[in-house]
Design brief:
By secondary structure, the chain is of the alpha+beta class. It has two helices and four strands. It is elongated, with a radius of gyration of 18 Å.
Length: 93
């Protein structure tokens, strides 16, 4: 499991790093919840349960549009491993 990877596009790590990153992506993308159930705390930058909590009416969460990802989607192009786009200091105003 400590072998280097020969692939296209090139992966800058060993096989164990590739497997770990793939598991993290799958786990991150598979966590879903009813939309609005969690909110980001501005001070701690952590997710916490929203004031409303879990919807009590089952009919509200039956449609697929009522569900969303718990965490932001992990970006792949340009900023691999990040959930937000990188803004260089020279472009910040």
């Amino acid at each position: 499991m400590s072998e280097s990877i020969d692939c296209c596009p090139p992966f800058p790590g060993k096989e164990r790093h590739l497997l770990r990153s793939q598991l993290a992506r799958i786990t991150h993308a598979a966590q879903i919840c009813p939309k609005g159930m969690y909110e980001l705390d501005e001070e701690t930058q952590e997710y916490k349960m929203a004031e409303g909590g879990v919807p009590s009416d089952l009919e509200l969460i039956k449609p697929l549009e009522s569900w969303g990802h718990k965490f932001p989607i992990i970006l792949t192009a340009g900023s691999p491993g990040r959930c937000t786009h990188f803004m260089p200091a020279t472009l910040k105003t």
